[in-house]
Write a structure and sequence with these properties.
The chain is mainly α. It is 85% helix and 0% strand. The protein has one domain: Growth Hormone, Chain: A (Up-down Bundle). It has 18 helices and no strands. Helix 1 runs parallel beside helix 4.
Length: 393
C-alpha cells in the first residue's frame, strides 16, 4: 500500500505537469488563429498564475480540513475540465475565462503534495516527484506539435484533456490507498498559519529567492517556442517541439539528482544546479545558429532540475515541520507571483527590444535567486541553534 501511494503521488505530479507546457508550445499558432499579439500569452498565463496564487495560499487550510487526497483528486478534475474548455475556445476572452479553474486546480495540488512529500519522504523522492512533473511537461509539447501538424491547437488541448481525465478517474478509484500513511495530520494540525509564517526569521529571503527562480524557469519554459520562432526563424511546429528540450533537460536532471540528493543535501544540490544553469544561459549569449540555442535550453533545464525540489524539501529542516505547511503554501504563492508577472514583462520587452534579450533577462533572476537562497540557509543556521537552546531551557 505504501509503495502504491507513492506511485499515485508521482502520477498526480504527471497530471500537474501536463498543462504547464501546453500554452507555451502552442502559442505561436494560437495567437495567430485568435488574432491577438504574441505578447497576449502573458495575459493568459497571468490569469492562470493568479488562480494558483489564491489556491496556494489556502492550500494549508484546505488540506488540514479535507486531507491531501481529496484536494488532489478535486484539483486534477478541475484542470481536466479547464483543458477541455480551452479546446473549444474560439475567442481570446474565453481562454482568459477558462484560465481561472485551470490555475485554481494547479495551485492546490502543487502546495498540498509538495508539503506532504517534504514531511514524509526523503530528498530523493522529492527530486523524483518533480521528475514525474517533468515527464508530464515533456509529453504536452509533442502532443501539441502533432496536433498542429495534423489538425489545430484545439486538438492538442483536447488530447491532453482526455489524458488528464483518465488520471483523475484513477486517483478517484484509488482513494482508500491514501490511508497507508496515517501520520499526516500531526504536523498539519500545529500549522502556524500564513501570518505567523511570514514573521519567521528567514522566510522573506526564501520567498524572494523562490520568486526569482520560478520567474526565470517560467520565462524559459513559456517563451522557448517564441524565442526559437522569432530569433532563429524556426517554424511554429518545430518550435513547439524544440520547447520540449527544456523539459527533457529538467526531467533527466531530476531523475539523476534523486540518486545524489540524500548524499549531498539540499543546499549543495541548489548550488550545483545554479552553476549548470548559468552555463546554459551563457550559451544563449553566443550569436550562433539554432543548434547552439537548442543545446543551451537543454543545459538550462538540466541546471534547473535540482533547484525547485531542493528548496521545497529544505523547508521543514530550515523552519520546522510544524511550520512547513503554511510556509510551503506561501512558497507556492511566491512562485506563481514570479510566474504571473515576470514572463508577461518579458513578452512586452521582447516586443520592444527583440526576444534575443532572453539570456540577459534570465541572468538577472538567476543571480537574485542564488543570493536570496544562500541568505535563507545562513539565516536558518542561526535560527535552529537558538530554538534548540530555548527548548533546553
Amino acid at each position: 500500500m505504501y509503495s502504491l501511494l507513492l506511485a499515485l503521488i508521482y502520477l498526480a505530479f504527471i497530471s500537474l505537469g501536463l498543462p504547464d507546457s501546453l500554452l507555451g508550445s502552442g502559442w505561436p499558432a494560437m495567437h495567430e488563429d485568435l488574432g491577438v499579439p504574441v505578447s497576449y500569452m502573458g495575459i493568459v498565463s497571468m490569469v492562470i498564475s493568479g488562480g494558483t496564487i489564491v489556491s496556494s495560499l489556502f492550500s494549508d487550510k484546505l488540506t488540514r480540513k479535507f486531507g491531501a487526497r481529496i484536494v488532489t483528486v478535486v484539483s486534477v478534475f478541475l484542470t481536466a475540465i479547464a483543458l477541455f474548455a480551452f479546446s473549444f475556445a474560439d475567442r481570446f476572452y474565453l481562454l482568459v475565462a477558462f484560465a481561472v479553474p485551470y490555475g485554481l486546480g494547479a495551485g492546490a495540488i502543487d502546495a498540498a503534495l509538495n508539503n506532504y512529500v517534504a514531511l514524509h519522504y526523503r530528498a530523493k523522492h522529492m527530486s523524483w516527484l518533480h521528475c514525474f512533473w517533468g515527464a508530464g511537461t515533456i509529453v504536452s509539447p509533442f502532443v501539441m506539435g502533432y496536433a498542429l501538424a495534423n489538425s489545430s491547437w484545439n486538438a492538442g488541448y483536447r488530447i491532453v484533456g482526455f489524458i488528464q481525465l483518465g488520471i483523475a478517474l484513477l486517483l478517484l478509484f484509488t482513494l482508500p490507498v491514501w490511508k497507508a500513511n496515517k501520520t499526516t495530520a500531526a504536523a498539519e494540525q500545529k500549522a502556524v498559519g500564513l501570518r505567523g509564517a511570514l514573521k519567521i526569521k528567514g522566510v522573506p529571503f526564501l520567498l524572494l529567492g523562490f520568486f526569482a527562480y520560478c520567474a526565470a524557469e517560467a520565462t524559459a519554459m513559456g517563451w522557448a517556442s517564441t524565442y526559437f520562432a522569432e530569433t532563429k526563424g524556426v517554424l511554429a511546429e518545430q518550435a513547439a517541439e524544440f520547447a520540449s528540450l527544456f523539459y527533457i533537460g529538467i526531467t533527466a536532471s531530476r531523475f539523476l539528482c534523486g540518486f545524489l540528493s540524500d548524499k549531498l543535501g539540499d543546499r549543495k544540490m541548489i548550488l550545483a544546479g545554479t552553476a549548470v544553469l548559468l552555463c546554459g544561459v551563457a550559451m544563449l549569449f553566443v550569436p550562433a545558429p539554432a543548434t547552439v540555442a537548442v543545446v543551451g535550453f537543454v543545459v538550462i533545464g538540466f541546471g534547473c532540475g535540482p533547484i525547485y525540489p531542493s528548496i521545497i524539501h529544505a523547508a521543514p529542516d530550515n523552519f520546522g515541520a510544524e511550520n512547513s505547511g503554511a510556509i510551503i503554501g506561501i512558497q507556492m504563492a511566491s512562485a506563481y507571483v514570479g510566474s504571473t508577472f515576470v514572463p508577461p514583462l518579458f513578452g512586452l520587452l521582447g516586443n520592444l527590444l527583440g526576444f534575443s534579450i532572453m539570456p540577459l533577462y534570465l541572468l538577472v533572476f538567476v543571480v537574485l535567486m542564488i543570493v536570496m537562497t544562500e541568505l535563507t540557509f545562513r539565516t536558518a543556521k542561526t535560527r535552529i541553534p537558538q530554538k534548540e537552546n530555548e527548548t533546553e531551557e
